[in-house]
Amino acid sequence: xxxxxxxxxxxxxxxxxxxxxxxxxxxxxxxxxxxxxxxxxxxxxxxxxxxxxxxxxxxxxxxxxxxxxxxxxxxxxxxxxxxxxxxxxxxxxxxxxxxxxxxxxxxxxxxxxxxxxxxxxxxxxxxxxxxxxxxxxxxxxxxxxxxxxxxxxxxxxxxxxxxxxxxxxxxxxxxxxxxxxxxxxxxxxxxxxxxxxxxxxxxxxxxxxxxx
Length: 212
Description:
By secondary structure, the protein is α+β, with helices and mostly antiparallel strands. The protein contains four helices and eleven strands, in the order E-E-E-H-H-E-E-E-E-E-E-H-E-E-H. The chain has helices spanning about 35-50, 55-75, 160-175, 205-210; strands at about 1-5, 15, 25, 80-85, 95-100, 115-120, 125-135, 135-145, 150-160, 180, 190. Strands 1, 3, 4, 5, 6, 7, 8 and 9 form an eight-stranded antiparallel sheet that branches. A three-stranded antiparallel sheet has the order 2-10-11, with no helix packed on it. Strand 7 and strand 8 (about 135-145) form a beta hairpin. The protein starts with a strand and ends with a helix. Residues about 1-10 and about 195-210 have low confidence and may be disordered.
């Protein structure tokens, strides 16, 4: 997938999404060191106020480091990027939304690549798990791919601990449910149904993450 050129995507294709619950922090693209430090200080103060009595001395060091990591991990092809803080402790997750174009010959996810994910705003996509081993700890994330006849949206949740993924997945799925893609003519687009005829959006490992 190739990302939209910076001078082409704005004002033509538009992607939107909103979170209904708290803890979602939009990550800006900031190259200037002074702007980065100002953003970190502002959001450290906001988290300190939001957490109230749950704020600890350790958070004074950990939270700014985590916020710096957010800026460092924002990808060049991210249309949207978020750090998700669901708890009043210094544990967070990273969510990326990329929009790009694909050649007609480039293969899209098919049978065996994932499970069906149905977004009310985008349509049907393919949700594929991402598994990595980090110093003996199994981390799990996932990519949700939505195809629109040459335009592709990929929502990526960076791998994290399984229990923590279970906490944040309902919020992420609700976010994806509310996403919309609008084309240059102002038409809200629906994703092409993926070739996952045997896959059903029930009784999968995804449900074990959203059942709690």
